[in-house]
Design goal:
mainly alpha, Serine Threonine Protein Phosphatase 5, Tetratricopeptide repeat, two-stranded antiparallel sheet, 67% helix, DNA-binding, PPR_At4g14850-like_plant, PPR_rpt, TPR-like_helical_dom_sf, Pentacotripeptide-repeat region of PRORP domain-containing protein, mRNA binding
Length: 537
DNA sequence: GTAGGGTTAG
């Protein structure tokens, strides 16, 4: 609070006089306004606000705009909005900040309304206005409104800067249909604009156009950290984790820009998908080495990586060290222990979370219920389900019912599982029937298995895996004919079935082995070692 | 006087 202690008395209002002798001398700002710019949190802004009121400085419209801006930078949108409402004739600066604030406050539709009000007021939008409004359009996937903004820019003959250029591309690439417009906008701007190209790369990646993105990335003259980060994140999102990790390694080796937090987070996510523990550990060590603060985001990504790579203890260490834990962090650690079958730890963490004042959401309950299911805790599952509905007012989704069917089914309580399915408020989906089918195969219940199978086929094209499961069930129950029929069906329709995959990591290289196949490059050597009794399958 | 691209739980 050093800033506040040093605050000048209200009489400073008099210093707000422009020096009349020379315009070259910088304008002396009232100290209160200087402090306003230095504020970094809500408390400080509020106190300077009080000073502005007392000193009468707030009566000057530009100062009210500055205060509004400060509330926006500390994300206090409610306060920003009340300042805005008191300005009788807001200028473009005030509008821009309020529009931005509404986007920050997750109300992009309100920022579009405000933009219209700005136009009605007869004000002329500038590049800042366009940047913010286009961002709102992107968030809403409002291509129609975005196009109107674009038309206005062209009609008004505004000279757009790199930010507006990039925002236009971002807006057009928020929908597959207008991706071509994004390409045209990029082509219409002659200079190299890294910002704009980054936008198009992430646009391509969000629409699954991985190759186009990579081509653009490879041809870029000036790649910045965001370019690498967008490409790595895009690979991960499109299920190409090996490529993501490969690109991260390339970045570390050849690129002059160093990875930022988002790059590390995306790369950790790739490690989690691949089970690449050594790589993940390396990234952890690297983050420590460069002195990166383990933020909630980075910490959460680390926990998730350790949990998915089979090292929940390391994940738990990271979790315990995190000074601030949000709902996602709790969710990651709880599902981590759920994956590892440690249901008791999940229950304990759930209680800690509630005691910490964090309110569970539906995803937390999916994790808890799946923990119950894997550990066979039927009564606990019922208890949490009841608690979710009656204490937390969360309406159970089809995923929750799926967990319950799985829980009852695995425990062999198939009659209850069937009863639950019949009482569902919505139409059971393939996850529900699939869970029942799996349980029926486990407990040799042919009647209910048949029922699940029938529903699954009615629900549309079924995966090869489901047919395979059904086939196994019928075969086990002695229904040879049906089993043969299903096997034939899989073969004739060329239905793919996924096989169990296992990964091992040796010297940082991830090797995958598919059950029942021989396709590893070092197969002969491995086979020889096995023959010699050096390794065991 | 204002701006950004990238991220984590089933």
């Amino acid at each position: 609070m050093a800033i506040i202690a040093a605050l000048a008395p209200p009489s400073l209002a008099n210093q707000n006089k422009l020096p009349s002798f020379s315009s070259k001398i910088p304008v002396r700002m009232p100290t209160t306004l200087v402090f306003l710019q230095m504020c970094s949190n809500f408390q400080e802004v509020r106190q300077v606000h009080a000073q502005l009121v007392v000193s009468g400085l707030l009566d000057r419209p530009p100062n009210a705009g500055r205060l509004l801006q400060s509330y926006v930078t500390v994300s206090q949108i409610y306060h920003a909005s009340s300042v805005f409402d008191r300005i009788s004739c807001p200028d473009v600066f005030a509008y821009n900040n309020m529009i931005r604030g509404l986007i920050l406050g997750k109300c992009p539709n309100n920022s579009l309304l405000l933009y219209n009000k700005l136009l009605l007021d007869g004000l002329k939008p500038d590049n800042y206005t366009y940047t913010f409004v286009l961002k709102a359009c992107s968030q809403l996937s409002a291509i129609f409104e975005g196009r109107q903004v674009h038309c206005r820019i062209v009609k008004a003959g505004t000279a757009i800067d790199t930010h507006v250029h990039s925002s236009l591309i971002h807006m057009y690439s928020s929908s597959m249909d207008s991706l071509v417009c994004a390409e045209q906008v990029l082509a219409g701007f002659p200079e190299e604009n890294t910002l704009a190209k980054n936008s198009l790369i992430s646009g391509y990646l969000s629409q699954g156009e991985v190759e186009k993105a990579r081509e653009m990335f490879d041809n870029m003259l000036e790649k910045d950290d965001a370019s690498w980060s967008a490409m790595i994140a895009g690979y991960t999102k499109n299920g190409m984790s090996a490529e993501a990790l490969g690109l991260f390694q390339k970045m570390m080796m050849i690129s002059e820009v160093s990875p930022n937090e988002a790059t590390l987070v995306s790369s950790l996510s790739a490690c989690a998908h691949l089970g690449a523990l050594d790589q993940g550990k390396w990234i952890h060590a690297y983050a420590d080495k460069i002195g990166a603060k383990i933020s909630v985001t980075l910490g959460t990504a680390l926990i998730d990586m350790y949990a998915k790579c089979g090292s929940i203890e390391h994940g738990y260490e990271v979790f315990k060290k995190m000074p601030h834990k949000d709902l996602v962090a709790w969710g990651v650690i709880i599902s981590g222990f759920a994956i590892h079958g440690q249901a008791e730890k999940c229950f304990e963490l759930f209680d800690d979370m509630v005691a910490n004042g964090t309110y569970p959401n539906e995803i937390i309950f999916v994790a808890i219920l799946s923990a119950c299911s894997h550990a066979g805790y039927v009564e606990m599952g019922y208890q949490y389900f009841y608690q979710m509905v009656h204490e937390y007012g969360i309406r159970p989704s089809i995923e929750h019912y799926g967990c319950m069917v799985d829980l009852l089914g695995r425990a062999g309580r198939l009659a209850e599982a069937e009863e639950l399915i019949m009482s569902l408020p919505e139409k059971p989906n393939s996850v529900i029937w699939g869970a029942l089918l799996g349980a029926c195969r486990m407990h040799n219940d042919l009647r209910r298995g048949n029922l699940a199978f029938k529903h699954l086929t009615e629900l549309g094209p079924m995966s090869g895996d489901r047919y395979k499961l059904a086939g196994l069930m019928f075969a086990k129950a002695g229904e040879k004919e049906t089993a043969t029929k299903i096997r034939k069906l899989i073969r004739e329709n060329d239905l793919e079935t996924t096989r169990g995959l296992s990964f091992i990591e040796i010297d940082g290289v991830v090797h995958d082995f598919e059950a029942g196949t021989i396709n590893h490059s070092k197969y002969n050597e491995i086979y020889k070692m096995w023959g010699e009794g050096l390794i065991d399958f």
